[in-house]
Amino acid sequence: MSQVVELLIEEVRSAWRFRWIAFGVAIGVAVLGWALVFTLPDRYESSARVFVDTHTAIKPVIKEISIEQDVNAQLAFVRQSLLAGQQLRKIAEQTGVLLPTIAQSAQQDRILKKLADDVTVDVRSASDNPRDETAGSIYSISYQDEDRARSLRVVETLLNTLVEQTLRGKQQGSESAQKFLESQLRLYETRLRDSENKLAEFKKRNVGLMPADQAQPGGGYFAQLQAEIDAAKKTETDLDVALARRGELSRQLRGEAVVSASGSTPVIGAAGISAGTDTVSRIKETQAKLDDLLLRFTDKHPDVIATRETLKELQRRRAEEIESLRRGDADAVAATGASSNPVFQSIQLALNQVDVEIASLRGQLSNHRAKAAELRQRLDTAPGVEAEYSQLTRDYDVNKTQYTALLSNYEKARLGEQADSAGSVRFEIVQPPTASFSPVFPHRVMLLAVVMIASVVFGAAVTWLMALLRPVVGTAQGLTKLTGLPVLGVVSAAFPGRIRADAQRSMMRFAAGMGCLLFAFLIVLLLSRAGFRLAMHSTGAG
Question: Can you give the pTM of this predicted structure?
Answer without folding.
Answer: 0.44
